[in-house]
Design a protein that fits this description.
This protein is α+β, with helices and mostly antiparallel strands. The chain has 15 helices and 28 strands. A seven-stranded mixed beta sheet has the order 2-1-7-6-5-4-3.
């Protein structure tokens, strides 16, 4: 496999080749002995997909001799079933642009061998979208692609690439999270609830326009939906919208955020786009994780139990649910859909460790290019993005000015291998000057006592702070909700000269009396922040560890 990252230049070539091909409409080989499109045209079981390629003017594009591809090809029955789901009878009913989107969505630049395919968790297609891969542990030689298509044959060789045969056709990412629900009859009840509560509108939007200091700022909207099918509702005796509303004892105005039905829907929504790998990853040796939901001050808990048949559960000690893996990891233009096997009512879990990445906000995601934000591995070269205007942060810049010359007031920076321990391989850098400050909202925390730990980045530029040869060692004042004020100097505790992620205890114990989000504020108290050109404070995350077993 040469590369799994699609080239936009090649995508353009594909389209141009299709539109200007002198053999357009032909289905005989034109470039090499047996390239992909000609291979498909010679096989009876792929005639419907060949029609899609031809109508999209992409047939000869996939016959190019100087480029290799991987084609995910649905069989005839799969294409016909797709038309039925879409309410049409042929590809022409969907239009040429949709047909092209469909071909690009089912095609990868370059080849991926069977061994590489079964070892990968995702691949990128020519649309620039990631397709998740779940290997079927029961049916040998099969896999689930993107939570919606079963791969039944792998790695068929042609002269310019490989073919993977699908039992289902995938829907290109021209659809939103709500479209994924609304167009699937198996989720008609959940779709009805989304519409009546008003959440359908939110799940149909790709972006919102915010005004920050009078300036328009486009904020991309992304969601992760935990979806309940009609069959799953039926297991709990819920056969209709009215039955669900009655069970939850919801009032009439279901559009109110305080309404029980509205909260129920919001409880199934996480802000941000998370695949199963991210949802099922825990911090260190922890076996559970708390996730914020769109329901105000409501969280859910995902737990791992190695002895259980299905080891991952949502709200294990409440009315629990598990992920239906074959129906999960369904991508949409604005997020992910994961199917669950329980109706999952709102429930307050016990305390669990919360790992708060300080750059994990929707507003930051909107300012940072998608191919840079939260890389999946350490990068070879750092990228810096100015996020000073991100509305999730409330900042005050020092009247004395800033000393650092390398960073903006707030900068998003990706991490190289020497900082590979950073969560999401990124960090938040502060350059606010003496008495400058930043405030931000924490995730929802279940009420109780916690130990609070800061993970921060030390670089060679911070040596003067560690040794206090200029200023007072990067002194900072931290607080929650204006209380629990503490002065801390994390950089003075570093005993090594090696660039790395270091840990510092902000609070040995702090108690939150309500389950809610809290305002965290940091004030820079070091005068060198306004005078030293190397000054910066670089933060990874804050970890809230429950303190239990106390009277």
């Amino acid at each position: 496999m040469k590369s799994l990252i699609p080239s936009l230049f090649v995508v353009v070539l594909l389209l141009v080749a299709g539109c200007q091909d002198p053999y357009e409409g032909s289905t005989y080989q034109v470039y090499q002995e047996n390239p992909i499109a000609s291979f498909l045209a010679a096989e009876e079981e792929y005639t419907e997909w060949v029609k899609v390629l031809t109508y999209a003017d992409m047939f000869n594009a996939l016959n190019q001799a100087d480029q290799d591809f991987t084609a995910f090809v649905p069989m005839n029955e799969a294409v016909q079933a797709f038309y039925q789901r879409m309410g049409v009878t042929q590809i022409e009913d969907l239009g040429k642009e949709y047909a092209r989107s469909m071909v690009l969505y089912h095609t990868m630049l370059d080849t991926i061998s069977v061994q590489e395919f079964i070892n990968a968790s995702w691949v990128s297609n020519l649309s620039g979208d990631k397709l998740s891969i779940t290997i079927d542990s029961v049916n040998a030689g099969q896999a689930i692609l993107n939570g919606e298509a079963r791969v039944v044959k792998m790695g068929l060789h042609t002269s310019n690439g490989l073919v993977y045969v699908l039992q289902d056709a995938m829907r290109p990412l021209v659809e939103t999270v709500f479209d994924r629900m609304n167009d699937n009859p198996d989720y008609s009840l959940f779709a009805e609830v989304l519409i009546k509560t008003g959440w359908a509108d939110s799940l149909s939007r790709l972006a919102d326009t915010l005004f920050v200091d009078g300036q328009a700022q486009v904020s991309q909207r992304q969601y992760t939906l935990l979806a309940v099918s009609n069959a799953t509702f039926a297991q709990d005796g819920i056969a209709s919208y009215d039955a669900l509303k009655q069970l939850l004892q919801a009032g009439d105005d279901v559009t109110l955020p305080t309404n029980a039905l509205n909260q129920y829907v919001a409880y199934h929504l996480l802000e941000g786009s998370y695949d199963l790998d991210k949802l099922l990853t825990f911090s260190g040796s922890d076996t559970s994780a708390i996730w914020d939901t769109e329901a105000t001050d409501q969280v859910l808990m995902i737990t791992w139990d190695s002895l259980a048949v299905e080891p991952y559960s949502i709200n294990l000690l409440g009315t629990k649910a598990s992920f239906d893996r074959e129906q999960s990891n369904v991508m949409a233009k604005n997020g992910y859909v994961h199917a669950i096997d329980g109706y999952l009512p709102v429930w307050e879990p016990q305390q669990a460790t919360v790992v708060w990445d300080l750059a994990n906000f929707a507003e930051v995601r909107s300012l940072v290019p998608s191919d840079i934000y939260q890389p999946t591995e350490a990068v070879s070269s750092e990228t810096k993005v100015n996020i000073s205007d991100a509305a999730c942060y409330t900042t005050e810049v020092s009247a004395s000015g800033i000393g650092g010359t390398t960073y903006s007031y707030l900068t998003y920076v990706t991490c190289k291998a020497n900082l590979k321990k950073a969560q999401f391989f990124d960090r938040l850098v502060l350059n606010l000057g003496y008495m400058g400050s930043v405030a931000m909202k924490t995730p929802t925390l279940v009420k109780g006592k916690y130990k609070v730990t800061l993970n921060f980045i030390y670089l060679s530029d911070h040596a003067f702070m560690k040794n206090m040869t200029d200023g007072n060692g990067g002194l900072m004042k931290v607080s929650f909700d204006g209380d629990n004020i503490r002065n801390v100097s994390p950089y003075t505790t570093v005993t090594s000269s090696i660039a790395n992620i270091y840990e510092y205890t902000l609070y040995d114990e702090i108690e939150f009396n309500t389950t809610s989000s809290h305002q965290f504020k940091l004030v820079v108290m070091d005068p060198s922040a306004s005078t030293n050109s190397k000054f910066s404070i670089q933060l990874d995350n804050i970890i809230f560890t429950p303190i239990t077993g106390q009277p």
